[in-house]
Structure formats: structure tokens, C-alpha cells
Write a structure and sequence with these properties.
five-stranded mixed beta sheet; nine-stranded antiparallel beta sheet; 19 strands; Rossmann fold; 3 domains
């Protein structure tokens, strides 16, 4: 065979190789922080450091850098053979691209760049204060999940939520003016490590801690009966089960062997298992993992004896339920222990409002092996 294509995916890292006459003709590496390509047996190479500051792109020919691009915030400098030949200002690229979705009456624009987390924090704790402070508000986002988060907790008239096609996180200031409108970019990666992400969040929105309120889950007429009917139809002992959320977009996921071993031990303790998954795997087949809506899955988790979850935006929502919760931090993008500790502290579930800290157990999975971690969690659950 003259041509062979090999693809692998592990821990969110995608690698693709195309062999020609048993030599690598094309190589592609798509990681969470760096993308690389090699073409024509390595003759042409590209590198993109996605979250490095400044953002870097390099094109090499025969291992010699031809074009380099360095971008910090919204200013991009492009070099040709190490000579600066162009500077671009990307300050308003995002809003110019989606200008048709912004109406003259929209005075306050909030760009939701994350997944579940930011929408949850606004709808569960900040929506009333936010709408009082900012009139004629519009939210720009990329997914229907944002609207569903608002519907979980907000029983009033929803603010305008515009889902944008081909959304990419804007490289712009966190807060700026655009044609007389106030624009706020809400993005977790901009929070830094000096304060907890929620404190940064309310500072950005100019909301005082005393103005943060906890809203209840909202059920429309007859909705709760329908949800309970769906939950009762599951193959699950609702009086004695553990809720597991093994998937994340922002952080890393645990290996399958971890989940296989911990669910087996929980079974031995007499617990049923529910797996919340949108990408089912073979190991999940012996457990209940019926796909549920946002409101159904939160209502189900509320009935559980405990929750085991990787750190994610969804884990923030689960913390609302006041259940014993075991939060796993993986792939913190650094091998520096001090930096890992700071990262976890700045993102700790215990730092969110109205959370019962004594029910939250957080683990840096880089500092404890899987067997010890499983033993610790199972021991705590056995004493619930």
C-alpha cells in the first residue's frame, strides 16, 4: 500500500499521520494549547500556540522561519524573515463580523465565550441585579446551551440571547465601547489566578457580593410531573445511586480504567450508578446513561446520594444542589505544583456562592495516583 492514514485521539489530543511509501508525508497535531503541521515530509512546518501570550504562529520552510505572527490582546505583528512588515489591529473584528445581529436599541452587549459556567452563574445568582443595572441588554453566544441555562432558573422575561454562527472567542479587551454601546467579554481564561473566578466575574459586571442572590430551579406548569415521570422510568434505584459526570470541555478527563474501577467498587457498596454522558463509551453500557435534558439531569442529580465529576462548567451547576461532591482536576496545563495549586484555588468549587464547603471534596489528580484517589472517594462515600 502506497498511502496509509493513521488517526489517534487521546485526552482531547488529535494526531493524524499520512504515510507515503512508509514515510510520514503529512503530520498534524491538534492539542488543547498547541497545533502543529508538517507537510511534504517535513519540508513545510507550521506551529500555532493558541493560548500563549503573545499568541504565536510560525511558518517554516526547510526548518527556516519564513513568516512569524505575534498577537497580544488585539494587536498582531507579522514578520517576514524576522523583519516587521505589517501590524494589524483586531480590536473590533468580532463585532464587525456580527454587526447585523446588534440592533440600534441594544445598549449593553455581553459576549458569553465559555460553555455552561458563565450562563449558569448569571441565571442562578446575578440575573435580577444585572437587568436592573443594565437596560436594553443583549447576550451574544455560540450555543443553545446558554439559553437553556437561563431557563433553568429565570422565570421572568428572558433577555435577548443571540446565538452566533461560526463563533470564535474574540481577542479583544474585556470591556470596551463599540459605536456607543458598552461591550463586556465574559471569558473564564481572562480571570487570572490572583482571585477566585467568581469574584473576578462580579467585579467585571460591577455587582457587589451583597447583590448576589440564589434563585430556585424553575418548573413551568406540569413540567415537574413530566420530568419525574421520565426520571422514574430510568433503570435506577433513585433512593441509592451515585451521579457521575465524566466529561469536560475545559479540563482533562480521567482514563476509562479509573471509571471502571470506581464504579465497580461503588456497585460493591450497593450503589446504583447514573452516567451523565453525551459521548457514551463501552464501559458505560452496564450502567444507566440515558441522555436527559439540562433540567432533567439537574433534577436527577438532586436525588442522588453523591456526585463524582471532573471539573467543568457543568460541575458548577451541580454544586448548586448541596450534595456530597467529589471534583477531579486534570490537565492543568502546567507541571509546576505551585501554579497548579493556584489554578485550583482560583477555580475551586468552594469559592462559588451559597456552596456548602464541607460537602465539597476537590482533588488534584496530578498529585495522587488513581488507586489512592478511588480509595479516598469510596471511603468517604461509604460513610455518607
Amino acid at each position: 500500500m502506497f498511502i496509509k492514514i493513521v488517526k489517534t485521539i487521546k485526552n482531547g489530543i488529535k494526531i493524524k499521520k499520512i504515510y507515503f511509501l512508509n514515510k510520514v508525508f503529512f503530520f498534524e497535531y491538534i492539542g488543547k494549547r498547541v497545533d502543529k503541521k508538517e507537510i511534504f515530509f517535513g519540508l513545510i512546518k507550521t506551529l500555532r500556540a493558541k493560548y500563549h501570550i503573545p499568541q504565536i504562529k510560525i511558518l517554516k520552510l526547510m526548518n527556516i522561519p519564513i513568516i512569524k505572527s505575534f498577537r497580544k490582546d488585539f494587536i498582531e505583528k507579522i514578520y517576514f524573515f524576522n523583519i516587521l512588515f505589517k501590524t494589524k489591529d483586531h480590536r473590533y473584528d468580532f463585532l464587525n463580523k456580527y454587526k447585523k445581529y446588534i440592533l440600534p436599541e441594544d445598549k449593553n452587549i455581553f459576549i458569553l465565550c465559555g460553555h455552561h459556567g458563565e450562563s449558569y452563574l448569571i441565571s442562578a445568582f446575578l440575573i435580577e441585579t444585572l437587568l436592573k443595572k443594565y437596560k436594553n441588554t443583549k447576550f451574544l453566544c455560540y450555543s443553545t446551551c446558554h439559553k437553556k441555562m437561563f431557563e433553568l432558573f429565570w422565570d421572568g422575561i428572558l433577555p435577548e440571547i443571540q446565538i452566533l454562527p461560526n463563533f470564535k472567542v474574540p481577542r479583544a479587551d474585556t470591556e470596551f465601547e463599540f459605536e456607543g454601546k458598552k461591550v463586556v467579554k465574559i471569558y473564564p481564561s481572562d480571570s487570572g489566578l490572583d482571585k477566585h473566578i467568581f469574584n473576578k466575574f462580579i467585579e467585571l459586571l460591577d455587582i457587589l457580593p451583597s447583590e448576589v442572590t440564589k434563585k430556585d430551579l424553575v418548573y413551568k406548569n406540569g413540567e415537574l410531573d413530566e420530568i419525574n415521570k421520565k426520571i422514574n422510568s430510568l433503570n435506577l434505584n433513585l433512593d441509592n445511586f451515585i451521579f457521575i459526570a465524566p466529561e469536560a470541555d475545559s479540563f482533562g478527563e480521567m482514563d476509562d480504567d479509573f471509571w471502571i474501577n470506581i464504579t465497580q467498587k461503588l456497585n460493591e457498596l450497593g450503589y446504583d450508578i447514573y452516567i451523565n454522558s453525551i459521548k457514551p463509551k463501552k464501559w458505560m453500557e452496564k450502567y444507566e446513561h440515558t441522555l436527559l435534558s439540562h433540567k432533567e439531569v439537574v433534577s436527577l442529580a438532586k436525588l442522588s446520594c453523591g456526585i463524582i465529576t471532573v471539573r467543568s462548567g457543568f460541575s458548577e451547576i451541580l454544586s448548586y444542589l448541596d450534595k456530597p461532591m467529589f471534583v477531579l482536576y486534570k490537565n492543568l496545563y502546567t507541571s509546576n505544583n505551585e501554579l497548579m495549586d493556584k489554578t485550583i484555588k482560583s477555580l475551586s468549587i468552594k469559592g462559588y456562592p451559597f456552596v456548602h464547603s464541607d460537602l465539597i471534596f476537590e482533588y488534584n489528580c496530578h498529585k495522587i495516583d488513581d488507586n489512592m484517589l478511588i480509595g479516598n472517594i469510596v471511603d468517604k462515600i461509604s460513610k455518607l
